[in-house]
Specification:
Residues 28-316 form the Sulfatase N-terminal domain. Belongs to the sulfatase family. The protein is α/β, with parallel strands linked by helices and 466 residues long. 33% of the residues lie in helices and 15% in strands. The chain has helices at 6-20, 54-61, 76-85, 89-92, 107-113, 124-127, 150-166, 188-193, 221-250, 278-281, 309-316, 331-334, 390-399, 403-414, 440-456; strands at 28-34, 64-66, 69-70, 117-121, 137-139, 171-176, 257-263, 286-288, 297-299, 304-305, 344-351, 357-365, 368-373, 418-422. It has an eight-stranded mixed β-sheet with strand order 5-4-6-1-7-8-2-9. It has a four-stranded antiparallel β-sheet with strand order 11-12-13-14, covered by helices on one side. It has a two-stranded parallel sheet with strand order 3-10.
């Protein structure tokens, strides 16, 4: 048999390897962000009401859910700004409802430089860290039934998938639901907001007697009614998630798409959204990535934060992570490994959508939460969106006869400079331990850690806390 020359054999081997081996598939990213969804409203995270979020619960069953996940700041645009930049708001420049003017890396341009097709559905203004964020595809809330029509999301999502395929690129899709943000489903506020627009109804609307009242709110008839409207909006959100996952499956993309689900902050009720309580920043963070993230897994150990989102996406896509960001990728945790430095989280608040400044800083670990309210002086009163609905009005009326509710109103309005809570015993922050001598050492220790963090991160408020 005639021997094949070595150079020819090498060439044939190279050709064979090139034709048989496939290029590694680029992972797609689908990020579903709910608007004002409390972590405890999701069944997989302990909601005692049955079957409110079956599709979100199924996503959790197919991936990993985090029991210690927090957004960086509990209000829309700054929360999303931290996701997009990986930086704390006072460092990114997105402390309120405005864009950054700083020349810093942010997610969309970095993904596009690495070959991604980037689309966004709803909440475009709030989810774009710069006014010139170069999305490839945009459909805002008006085109999506005010961000509440699952079938319109289906149509637009398919457009993004088709355009990414036509361009030969993997996609990054930030899919934002406007549920369960106010105005709630079926509420008077909703009817007044869009009197001439037919809104898609949820698959189930709840009655006041069906809802569970969180412990940080009093159980009053008007509050139950508003919670029923809120949970009807949560149900409509879950209906949307079902459609989104169906599109991925029907398009054959579920195996090669990392799906993340989270909320931008807590529910728009007193003692949740636009604050630093556990119910303000804790978020129902779920990650599904077949073949990479163990299905049905629960992480009880690691704290993850909104600033960690940006580097995690980049590392999952095998892309370089820019220098100068505050967050750290938790891809290692998703792969089932332990990661040091995740025993606590730092959260903040700066200003409301009405541009009222209420600076707060918080440190939380598994046991305790410490908050420093720079604005609390006994004279300035707190005002936020949660006071616009039935709940606050009902609390004020009931407070005329019930001292316990009157005290809650007073505390919400004026606070104290420092707050400390035992989150194992009191996750709803009902018993402020500041002033209790048994917890004086713990308060001092956590305040010291907060000051150290502020110094290390060049927080401009640090001089006011020492």
């Amino acid at each position: 048999m005639k021997q094949v020359p070595f150079f020819l054999l090498s060439l044939l081997t190279l050709i064979a390897s090139c034709t048989s081996a496939k290029e590694p598939a680029h992972v797609n990213f689908l990020v579903i962000v709910a608007d004002d969804l409390n972590w405890s409203s999701v069944g997989a995270f302990g909601n005692p009401m049955k079957d409110v979020t079956p599709h979100i619960d199924q996503l959790a069953a197919e991936g990993m859910r985090f029991n210690h996940a927090h957004v960086t700041v509990a209000v829309c645009q700054p929360s999303r700004g931290a996701l997009a930049t990986g930086r704390y708001p006072h460092k990114s420049g997105i402390e309120g409802f405005f864009h950054t003017e700083k020349n810093i890396p942010n997610l969309v341009p970095v993904l596009k430089e690495n070959g991604y097709f980037c689309g966004i559905l709803s909440k475009v203004e709030h989810s774009s860290p710069r006014s010139d964020t170069p999305w490839d595809f945009i459909a805002d809330m008006e085109a999506l039934g005010m961000g509440r029509d699952k079938e319109r999301y289906r149509t637009e999502m398919k457009k993004i998938i088709n355009q990414s395929r036509a361009n030969g690129k993997p996609f990054y899709l930030m899919l934002n639901s406007n549920d369960p943000h106010r105005p709630f489903s079926g509420s008077d506020q909703e009817k007044k907001a869009w009197p001439d627009i037919h809104l898609a109804p949820p698959s189930k609307s709840y009655k006041p007697e069906e809802v569970s009242v969180p412990d940080f709110l009093p159980d009053l008839p008007e509050i139950r009614l508003e919670l029923a409207e809120y949970y009807s909006s949560v149900k409509r959100l879950d209906d949307l998630v079902g459609v989104v996952l169906d599109v991925l499956d029907s398009e054959g993309l579920d195996e090669n798409t990392m799906v993340m689900f989270l909320s931008d902050n807590g529910m728009a009720f007193p003692f949740s959204k636009t604050n630093c309580y556990l119910n303000s920043t804790k978020t129902p963070w779920i990650v599904r990535w077949p073949g990479h993230v163990p299905s049905g897994s629960v992480d009880e150990e690691h704290f993850i934060s909104g600033i960690d989102f940006f580097p995690t996406i980049l590392e999952a896509g095998n892309m370089p992570i820019p220098e100068g960001i505050d967050g750290i990728s938790f891809l290692s945790v998703l792969e089932g490994n332990e990661q040091p430095g995740r025993s606590q989280v730092f959260t903040q608040f700066y200003e409301t959508s009405a541009k009222k400044k209420y600076p707060m800083r918080c440190i939380q670990n598994k046991r305790y939460g410490y908050i420093y309210n720079f604005w609390a002086d006994g004279e300035n009163a707190f005002r936020n969106e949660s006071q616009s609905g039935r709940t606050w009005s009902a609390m004020k009326v009931a407070g005329e006869e019930r001292p316990d509710i009157k005290q809650r109103i007073q505390f919400f309005s004026y606070r104290t400079r420092e707050e400390l809570y035992d989150l194992e015993k009191d996750p709803d922050a009902l018993n402020n331990l500041i002033g209790n001598p048994e917890y004086a050492d713990m308060a001092a220790e956590m305040k010291g850690e907060l000051i150290q963090w502020m110094e290390e991160n060049e927080d401009p408020e640090v001089e006011k806390i020492r």
